[in-house]
Amino acid sequence: MGSAADSASNAALNLTHQQKIRLGACAWSFEEWRGAFYPADLPPDRWLEFYSRYFPAVEIDSTFYAAPSEATVLRWAESTPASFRFACKLPRSITHACRLRDCSAEFTSFLRAVEALGPKLQV
After folding, report:
1. What was the pLDDT predicted at 8?
2. What are the tens digits of pLDDT across the range 26-85?
């Protein structure tokens, strides 16, 4: 994923792991990308793995609507390299229903749902 030039640039700037800027898309499951970005014959369950070869991060929009299953989160983590990062959108129950107030139970539930991402979980 990272090249020797990337490593040299980071070292020259004295960037820590947390100071790196990672660019990515707001999701990886756009059907419109089939044939344009994803090979036409690549099955959708391999899209994240393919995406992670070109981008170091992605936002997970689906967490706004529903908590992912543990199996799904584990699949995301296992499909990407160790340096890959996920930014999970907070659930609407936190951002819209609670309006970020008195939502510790909802926030704890959200963190439990995505904790299998481990160090790949970033904001």
Report:
1. 52
2. 999 999 999 999 999 999 999 999 999 999 999 999 989 988 999 999 999 999 999 999
Confirm if 119 and 83 have CB atoms less than 8 A apart: no
What is the domain partition of the chain in residue ranges? Answer: 22-122
Distance CA 84, CA 51 (A): 10
Class of domain 22-122 (CATH, top level) = alpha beta
E runs forming strands in the chain: 24-25, 57-60, 85-88, 121-122
Sequence-distant (6+) residues with CB within 8 A of 62 are 27, 68, 89
